[in-house]
Amino acid sequence: MFLDPLRPSPDGDLPGPVLTEITALYASNHVFHALSGDFPDPYGIRPEQVAAELARELADPHTEVLLARGEGLLVGIAVTLAVHPDPADPDPWIGLLMVDASLHGRGHGRRLAELVEDRLRTAGRTAVRLAVLDDNTTGLAFWTALGYTAVDHRRDHRLGRPCTVLRKPLTAPATAPDPASGPAPGPDPA
């Protein structure tokens, strides 16, 4: 899986095939959208609605929309915010992380989260935050299993929905030893 930043045309339009892919991804997650209330009909998400949502996200110069691709397919999407509207909040945020619902339970969400964390870590960031809607127990379980801990409870900025704010320090990624270099060194016997 790799991340591909979404880059609209200079006039703000998304290529038709890309918008079709993203719309299908959003539409596959109707359970989440029923909880979030982001779309009037979570079972009838249309391309123009997705285009408007992405345009709203990308209007903020600190926002990046990342498409997660694997084997030529759109697997997921992540939206990150490098600077939070609250100046007292120094951490970047994950505003959305969504995997195609037909692929849930296969580790793609975990991998996508790791790729986003690695991207933020490479940019010199030391922690990341996100908010989970209070009634999204599946989302809360997912993020806490990845090492995120609750640091606050508040309403989201856009729609005023009650949320749990989670934070995770971004420590160095764990690296597996290279099998070609032999066994990992053990403790010094001296």
From TrEMBL:
Residues 30-171 form the N-acetyltransferase domain. Keywords: Acyltransferase, Transferase. Residues 168-190 are annotated as: Disordered. The keyword Translocase does not apply. Residues 180-190 have a biased composition (Pro residues). SUPFAM superfamilies: Acyl-CoA N-acyltransferases (Nat) (SSF55729). This is GNAT family N-acetyltransferase. It comes from Streptomyces tendae.
